[in-house]
Predict the structure.
Amino acid sequence: MAAAAALSERGRGRTAPNPNVGCLIVREGRVAGRGWTQPGGRPHAEAMALEQAGDAAGGATVYVTLEPCAHESPRGPACADLLAAVKPARVVAALIDPDPRTAGRGFARLRGAGVAVTEGVSTDLARRAMAGFLTRRALGRPHVTLKLATSLDGKIALPSGESKWITGPESRAHAHLERARADAILVGRGTFKADAPRLDVRLAGLEERSPARFVLAAKNPSVPSEREWNWLDSPHAITSLPADHLLIEGGAGAASAFLAAGLVDRLLLYRAPILIGEGRACIGDIGLSRLADAHGRWVLADSRMLGTDRLEIYERKR
Ligand code: ZN
């Protein structure tokens, strides 16, 4: 399932409104097929993996991050039907499909065809890999990641505004990878004015993955830029974004506005081993009146060194 979740990540940010599913077909201990939802949402992961596996899919074990779809669409057959036709021995799935057109019917159809089904395997991995789709389904908005790159004392710039660079090259490369995994990025007005031309994906081979760009501003901020920008007048306007994974890149104003609105699901905290003292804080007022309310909101999901910096990833408890 970890391999299927890794395959699912390949489609992340490119399959909306379809889920970025990953699928692995294993026959007699060997991988016979790999699939992930293709850009634009078709073919589905299972269809791609079945195509690769060919005859080897019969009697095989199929690992899939989401319940195979049970609804036919004009764009292709239902994956539950494709699977039922080739008769794998077993389908191992992480999550049930929250789409009401499937929601258990995919599993039922497979069982009805004599295929053993195991549900609920490695659900955390699958939830992370498909966070955008699942958040859109559950909350009607994209999954939101906030990136903070700070000193040990939580500062993002000197009082003069000098901010390049606080974190090291490894952290900045990782942040670019995160940008490629999002289908939309957002910055505040100040960051936009200072950095607009730089906010794209500058990793070899990933240039095409540059996400749609948004500025949090009351009205259209007309600053010359090589690429197209859109603007959002409030954090709550993200419900209308044509994206499932939104990355907030800064600055402190945009970060605070989204935190105050309770609209951040994941924090990427890159911390450099430097002290700044007097300087600009990474966030401002987030509407907290009691310290007790600050507790219990965030859970550490991952932590690692990037060069001399430390990256911590926190997830919002809901
Ligand atoms: Zn499908």
Observations:
- The pocket of zinc ion is lined by residues 44, 46, 68-69, 79 (CB under 6 Å).
